[in-house]
Fold these 2 entries.
Entry 1:
Amino acid sequence: MENVLEFNQLYYRFPGADKPALNGATLTLTRGKKIVLVGRNGSGKSTLLLHANGILKPESGEVRVLGRPLQYSRKELVSARQQVGLIFQNPDDQLFSASVEQDISFGAVNLGLTDEEVRDRVASVAAMCEITDLLDRPTHALSGGQKMRVAIAGVLTMNPQVILADEVTAGLDPWMRIHVLESFDRLVKQGVVVLFATHDLNIARFWADEVAVMENGQVTTVGLPTQVFDNPMWREVLY
Amino acid sequence: MCNALVGCLLMPHPAVGFVAFVWMAVLTTLWARIPTIVFMRVLFAEVTFLLVSVIGITMSIQLSPPSDALFAWSAVGMWVSVSAESFELALMTFARALGCATALNFLILTTPLVDIIELIRRIRIPDVLIEIMVLLYRSIFVLLDSLIRIATAQNARLGYHNMWSGFRSSAMLGSQLFLVAYRRSQRMRVALESRGLDGPICVVASRYTKDNRVWVLNIALTVSLCAAWFLL
């Protein structure tokens, strides 16, 4: 299995913080897998995701994207951000444009594609996320679930190899949650790696191919959902 | 819309303003099918403000009796008068502002901001101004949402049960909103960077279809404004 994204011994401390947010975090994502990252609040899940495409730079350790060490020059970051897409918990933090079509097109335009290519991508991604009928709508007029689908579509137009989703099903109704997970299933079938940070242990147990547990800035275990949830030690950490 | 606005500004005659007003009222309510009640409500606020301003232009107050007044009243040793010149000036200001206001109302009530942004992008307004406009527009709704949530939470804990608690709660709401705006701006920056932001914010341009009726209406509007200017 090809290693698509690797975090090796990452150490990061937020300015002014006493404890490091990441304290030797190591995790490898392989192609075609759905990995769920679980852990308590403050365990370092979101911080780890922000290292994946160079939003944060580790004080020590290394991030490798498609086998290459992540460089923090402007050009390399653009390339890394094309490969690794980040979706955030609150879509309102991600949607900035007045119309859905323009918001979705943003990432594709940044890749330097031609106008026609951008429009083609927007149309295909909108069809995939079932938001074609929303393209002309203003972003502020969407429901929470619709906003989340638009946020996902905005990342997918960049055609990433890895999708990192940070608590994206929080606050969604069960139907919309299933819809989001089905969207991720389709992506995984196309070879995209999905890493999903969540507090929803049902998603970890029943949807994931692998579960990674984070605790105090470290990835303390990675394994099959049954292995993790049936182990009394990890059950104690998770519940 | 643009020619009504420019016409009102360049042709200083009350008739031009009133003709522009009639045109814009008809276009807004009949062509764009904006409900008349909505149009009237918006207009009411503007006309009220305009009338108050125009009264100041019309009337003059002096201690001695006016020599060339159309109307004059004496009260507590002072003279309040309306001269022919000030009346004409007030009428022209009123008509001109009314024409411009209805032209702007037409734009506001019929054109989504996306289209306005696209227009200013096409007329080569600097990117930085467009970006500020886009982000501000989006932030209005996000912050309004936060404002409503915070105010509801304060209300649920008797935050506005009397005047003083209302003042205190409003002050806290204001400071909290500032923090919310700052945090959201940080998170949005991260989100934009992770989607490849590397310079100005660029998005795909909207596509429009041409409608020849717009040209016909524009020509008719311009001709009628010029006719009002020359003939009246």
Entry 2:
Amino acid sequence: MTRAATARAATAGDAAAREASALTVTDLTVTLPHPGGRVRVLDGVSFDVPPATTVGLIGESGSGKSMTAGALMGLLPEGATTTGGVVWRGTDLLTADAAHLRRVRGRQIAMVFQDPLAALNPTQRIGRQVGEIPRRDGLSRAEVRRRVIDLLDRAGIPEPERRMRAYPHEFSGGLRQRAVIAMALSGNPSLLLADEPTTALDVTVQARILALLRSVQRAEGLSMLLVSHDLRVVSHVAERVVVMYAGRVAEQGPAREVLRRPAHPYTRALVASVPAVRTRTALADPLPGAPATPAARPSGCPFHPRCPLARERCRTEVPAPRAVADGRRSACHFAEEVLGS
Amino acid sequence: MTALLDVRDLRVTYGRRRGAFRAVDGVSLTVAPEETLGLVGESGSGKTTVARCVAGLIRPDGGGVHFDGQPLGPVGRRPAALQRAVQMVFQDPRSSLNPRMTVAAVIGEAWRTHPSAAPGGDRAEALHRLLADVGLDASTASRRAGDLSGGQCQRVSIARALAVSPRLLVCDEAVSALDVSVQAQILRLLDDLRRERKLALLFISHDLGVVHQIADRVAVMRRGEVVEEGPAGDVMSAPRHEYTRALLDAALDLDDGTPEQTGTTRDFPA
């Protein structure tokens, strides 16, 4: 039975168990050493990834989106200290022991990185790499082979029996990313963490890989955290979005509502800076300056130096994220005004 | 209007004999004065090779590039006046500037290379005026390129190009590496400069939305050839070549669920 069918067959009594498969990030704060004192590169980041849902984590450079993904996978830079919680199926991954993390990372939570060439071993055949987890699980040679063929097929690689014998350099960029997705699926994950999975690919390939990620997520009932700087990519795949700025969450909520009617001036500016393809978009009135970095985070609301609505209160008082509409949170003092305009 | 830039039947081959690869195979393009030509295509289409020929960094093995009626040879053989007239802005502003040089030194070097473009009077004042034109304050002059943000570096790259009063700017993915909020600033800057300084732009990008915003005309390249060329609105909203249609179908618009968005983009092409 597929995961989706299992989910459909689940009785009300299983609801709690499914709920538990969600990821809950609470008040995640990461500090890094910096000349002049430690810097909070992430500052009180909170969001959920519900079961069978895709959440888009959006941000520009310095926003902390990749740091957040790194914290989930235990891939933080040397010298990082972490507080808060990253709870996965009842266990806080930030404090879990190494044996538990080995069972979770790469298996229950699998990653798809930006550069497939860096994620693949150039000296091993594709089939060997995709079959690594099944082999470690003690499957026989024939079973591993069947499993690899099935995984490659699910990742949309044509002629899997033949392609499994190829080396990564014999694959195009798109096929390599499919092989990486097959590897990610090999441990039967419940959560896929995809960090800029299509940024290195051409547009025509990008569309196909996004379609694949979305269909795999739906067919297998996975949760997915899609990290991207590209609002367009996120808008096509995510049901919910989390918009980050300078190491904090600016706004979060259902994707379409956030994009159609932002509750934070930063989200509004991001949406306005995306040009349409088929119709001509006038050049946007750009935001002044560059994205704030955690090392030089402005006082009060970190967005205030660039914000067209900034007032005195924004310079002095840090806006706490608060509920502004059904399922939506914004860290703007004047979110209602932004929503209403 | 007569063309400022005239690329005719350009051919470039990399490698030799059996390993030879025809990167550009008979490309013809024109850019009129004060016009922006957008050049789009996927990786390997040859768009960067065309840019490099125009800039004189690569010598084509067939066809040629003319500027204002004069042949444009490779950089070493290009008359100084023509070399000044065609300037490039690259994708990665950090790797195209020496991180240890101050901004003043970067601009000073451009003036040393082209003494005919160097200001006659007060250099500091000319430098500050140039920086102001690209949206940088005078205090940036003494800072090192390595200490600037990506957007500031790209402004310095543009200032370096403008320092020698070019007539054509070749922008090769000039906004692709920038944050979206900064990308909008640089696009606006390039378009304003084009108008104020009567520049022509050859704007190369893989991002069809950005090209549609800034270009008057668009040429679409695939595998070393131009498959379609025309006014931006025509090419982007009523493409004639099947490859242009495939590119447009694959390109994503922001999908916020409103009716005009769904249907065209919510479902990916097969």
